[in-house]
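Forwarding these from the shared drive since the link keeps breaking.
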Amino acid sequence: MSDALAFQEKLTDALDRRKEWLDRQEMPKLKEEFKILHTAFQGLYQVLLKKGLIHEDPYKHDAKIGELEIPPEGPFTESERMEEMSIRLSAYDSQLDFLVNFYQYSVEFLTLERIKRILQLVKYFNWSQFSVNSPYINTRALAEIIALVRGGNDQLSIGLVADALQVLDRSSREIFRILKEITDYHRESYKLDIRIRLLDQMSLDASIVFTQKEETLHTIKRKFAETITDRPFYPELVEEILRENYAAEGPRLKEEILKGLAVPEEKPKPTKTTVSNKNLLIEAFKILGTLSFTFTDVIVKIQENSSILESEKKGFWYKLKKLIQQMLNKDAEPLYYEVEYLDPVLGTKRTEQLNFTQFCAELERKSRYLTGLSTRGSSVLKKIEEATEESLLNTLTKLIEELQSSHRTLNALDEFFKRSVHKENRDRIRGIKPELSALKNSIVKANQKRHEYIAQKEEMEQLKKLGI
């Protein structure tokens, strides 16, 4: 009996240490991974909405969520696919939003029952085995919808989908890992509680615990119902206790439990002999990465404005020609606009023949690149983080110059559309001043980081020269 009490004391101490470590180290990671998962899913969701492959759920904002709920998982016919997947994707998005913004991230709050519900939600789509051949109806249906995007010629959307799926796979795996650690803690905590509150008060005959296992479990369950009313009865965990307490392999099992609960040693970070200001450059790239949605909105607006202007200039035969081109899948002829902008060097106004078709394609390329900068785990961000400081500085300088040029051209286009359409259509023109302001602010902030890096680099060079 003394051995049993000694083990319970060790187990209590190990669980206390484990809980403190989980709350301090793993819970912030778990919340961050759910934020990443939700952001990646929203990117995927918005592409499908934009493509018209699903539609908004009109009742989305009317639903009140009090606890995590799993969206429908039942079968549906091919004709019902769009309607059902629109509802299910919207519900999945809402549940992830609730999980990120309203759930508590602590060991105490994330009970076994809540963890079970979270696992069901994360597994709602099998991101790690995402295929049109999936045995799971929701995964298969979503993969079929996404295949329609991949089969098109919109490279921006194809790239966004590929990046989102990569992040969803990586993030869901990390979430499963952390949830398993929390589950393992709760299982051992439950077993310790049962030992102290129930089994220590019972006199079980060690000789018949396994030879009459069903009768033993029935006796324990009956006593459990009389004694413990604040916990559910988990027979598989009670069986584990019996093996640990009465089986020949018991001492080894107990040792493995204590070993599994041990808190990983935090290795001291090696002291760096050289100072690196690389993080300043990476921060600048991440600031610019927030512009991805700004560029997406801008592209939509200027293309709509162009359509309004062209509909005024062209008649029936132009529209017929365009329709035939679309039917034959032929590329449209490049569209040119004469825009006017202020030369920042000379301070005078200049006009430029802008290839509007090519300019929109360049904006889409930039938008995809910026999305990669804002998506944790993306190949774009990985390359940035692995690059040398000199390479990063050159890339950042070039990117800022390109964005400044885009800002100048977009500003000129905004004025061009407003003055070029007929008076009765001016109210239909969509202004882009908010997007221009966001673009300018991000450029300024990124440039500040770049100048800060250059200043610190120059200061370090001076100190080196002085022998410091």
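-- next protein --
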Amino acid sequence: MIIYGLHPVLEALKAGRVTRLRIADRSDARVQEALTLAGRRKVEIARVGEAELDRLSRHALHQGIVADVTAPREMTIADLVGGTEGAPLIVVLDGIEDPHNVGAVVRSVDAAGAQGVIRQTRRAAALDTVAAKASAGAVSHVPVVDVVNIARAIEELKSLGVWTVGLAGEAAQSYDAVDWTLPSAIVLGAEGTGLRRLVRETCDLVVSIPMAGHVDSLNVSVASGVVLFEAARQRRAPK
């Protein structure tokens, strides 16, 4: 796997996932930070030209740095639920394939202190290149579980004691009326189509984010951030 850009590469270095660093001749302080980290971890470093970095990143904004990284450790739903001392908070992605959205959701998951993401294997966005950059490097820290069937994954979460809450614009109950201090999973559908019928019916509850303006919905990554930080707020509140 290849990632590029300063934030993603620095976070991958911190996580110990970089096997080789290819870097242009630049004097940027963040590039020097990456070189220092790579040296400490004994990562192979190659000085290459900008043309080579352009080719590797397919002419995306690489900021003079490209890294080869190892694939993340495979995890199960049980690993995700059992990997925390407190009540788990998980995001389930139903049909979200755009790598920008996936990366932005992963960034919100990391920022809110949630445990990880569950998504469907079929047509899943690769967690390198675009998604890694959109996540500002959070893909190196957030566990992602790939499953064959989202509805079955929700059933497994429920069997493990996790409250599954779908997000849909027309739902009557507001997201901030939910007790997010319980073990919880936020289920998000794709923009435009929303949650698939079976997935929606499998959730314990479906809620909405009330809209006060002229548009009737939020970008899915923004919506995930709104709900995640409401959950984080509730969990920080004095008992």
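The radius of gyration is 19 Å. The CA atoms of residues 1 and 69 lie 5 Å apart.

- D.
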